[in-house]
Write the structure tokens for this entry.
Amino acid sequence: MSFFKTRKHYFQPVREDGKVETIPFLKAAADCTIPFLDILGPKAFYVVKTDINGNVTKLTKKYEMDPVNNSTLQGLVEGEVANNSALKGGSGTETLIWLKRALQFIRGMFVNLLNGVNDGENLIPCAAKSYESYLKPYHGWMVQKVFGLVTKAMPYRRDLLKAMGNGQDEETVINDMKEFLVLFGQNLDAVVEMYQSKNIDKEFKV
């Protein structure tokens, strides 16, 4: 089975009320992206991997402080907005924004690969375009330089698909990727919509 069929945790359907359950989202975020970054290159993508892992840990602790009100990501953010702590450094709202952006970056790479943004076997354009869209607007000059090196460390397309295939052919891996992106995308879109409705997505930069 391919990488996409061997995860312990997967993104779950968004609830009918449009809310995303906190713990299933965080478990899937860690289990579906950190191993993928290891495939891309554990050293080159260490900064992204560490960022995701750290933010998942912080948000899990936020959840544990109030499991009832923080049972959904929307509930967590709305609670902080209500008590005027959302825009403070280290808030769950800020932490989730950075996790969202990192996940959008990864999702963007998958989508760009499926859409043929790559230059033949060269996947650098897939990573570079996704970075330009989802992370670069919030990064200062120094961080942009670091990520410029990160995106250039992308493996060749055939090597990536082989590593993710676990013996499966490329067509199977691509089909599994498309299936995985459905719920991944639905979850991310729900979080994006929440931040856009509150007009606070652009508040945090580094």
Q: What stands out?
A: The mean pLDDT is 93.
